[in-house]
């Protein structure tokens, strides 16, 4: 066997991180990985997470037993409320079943596995995701043998949404396809549909009997407002869709390495509500058991302490505003500097886009050049992680962009 296994290509993002670490240049800038950094370019433990950690540490009843297959119940039920809204009729009518997963990646995977096993099997449905999308979507759905295709999303001319292209592709997708949607703060473009555009997307998905699959990795991190960032999901649920949601707590709690996440399946009010959710839950439990047996406890306990305590929840919202606010400030500073220097091109997209990332519009050639000449690290598609910018390096970065654009 060992003789026939070919060498796999290195993960581009993790390769970029390694190259950054090796670079000895003092002013090097890391705009690669999508993880929050404070104004000193350091990882940030949210103060509210620190508090929850202390509470957990002092709890004499905490032990290291297994969690149930579906995870920590206090965590999954609080997660439902967070994403769907505390007064969601879907929750009240027992139409939601939720399992704790290995962060957002695990939730996407569990959903993919479940859909492969049960959804529209006779037609071998295709999963459509945006072009571009988070690179892992491609691999996760391919691993479970679901055919994949893309719909247009980003317009290189406006550096905004190619709405017509997106709608046309969803409209012409075979009836009953799976449509993957980023709930907010689209990765990698930072471009989201407006609420009116979401309404149109919902109506086309409905008319073609497609299945919406929401990937929600940045709730609260995008705008600082948890409800606003969940608007699209809640709208679809209100419209009576059967849908699923992959929810990650990596970014909004800064719990990247703890792998806290949740998978939710929401049944439509038209189906035999609570029984449908019960049946789906039982099947998801079987899949979960064979994949990971049961999920990891620590991150879910931290999140659960915060989500279930009014005061800590309010502090968390405050911490979220600190992160999203700093990123928004950096967007403004970068745009201002580029415009002040008269850097060729338009730069309004830097402040129009939201969330962790910005699609700068720099070409692959320019990205490689900026790395070589200025020691700035970003992915080849011109995406920058806004959190890598701070008041100490934003001018340096703007000048590096100016230089490479003029060359
Ligand atoms: N979906 C999207 C769109 C993401 O950007 C990410 C994080 N990079 C994830 C899912 C999942 O991340 P995690 O597994 O760390 O929660």
UniProtKB/TrEMBL annotation:
<protein>
    <recommendedName>
        <fullName>Aspartate aminotransferase</fullName>
        <ecNumber>2.6.1.1</ecNumber>
    </recommendedName>
</protein>
<dbReference type="GO" id="GO:0004069">
    <property type="term" value="F:L-aspartate:2-oxoglutarate aminotransferase activity"/>
</dbReference>
<dbReference type="Pfam" id="PF00155">
    <property type="entry name" value="Aminotran_1_2"/>
</dbReference>
<dbReference type="GO" id="GO:0006532">
    <property type="term" value="P:aspartate biosynthetic process"/>
</dbReference>
<dbReference type="GO" id="GO:0005829">
    <property type="term" value="C:cytosol"/>
</dbReference>
<dbReference type="InterPro" id="IPR000796">
    <property type="entry name" value="Asp_trans"/>
</dbReference>
<dbReference type="InterPro" id="IPR015424">
    <property type="entry name" value="PyrdxlP-dep_Trfase"/>
</dbReference>
<dbReference type="InterPro" id="IPR015422">
    <property type="entry name" value="PyrdxlP-dep_Trfase_small"/>
</dbReference>
<keyword id="KW-0032">Aminotransferase</keyword>
<dbReference type="InterPro" id="IPR004839">
    <property type="entry name" value="Aminotransferase_I/II_large"/>
</dbReference>
<keyword id="KW-0663">Pyridoxal phosphate</keyword>
<comment type="subunit">
    <text>Homodimer.</text>
</comment>
<dbReference type="InterPro" id="IPR015421">
    <property type="entry name" value="PyrdxlP-dep_Trfase_major"/>
</dbReference>
<feature type="domain" description="Aminotransferase class I/classII large">
    <location>
        <begin position="27"/>
        <end position="400"/>
    </location>
</feature>
<keyword id="KW-0808">Transferase</keyword>
<comment type="similarity">
    <text>Belongs to the class-I pyridoxal-phosphate-dependent aminotransferase family.</text>
</comment>
<dbReference type="InterPro" id="IPR004838">
    <property type="entry name" value="NHTrfase_class1_PyrdxlP-BS"/>
</dbReference>
<dbReference type="GO" id="GO:0030170">
    <property type="term" value="F:pyridoxal phosphate binding"/>
</dbReference>
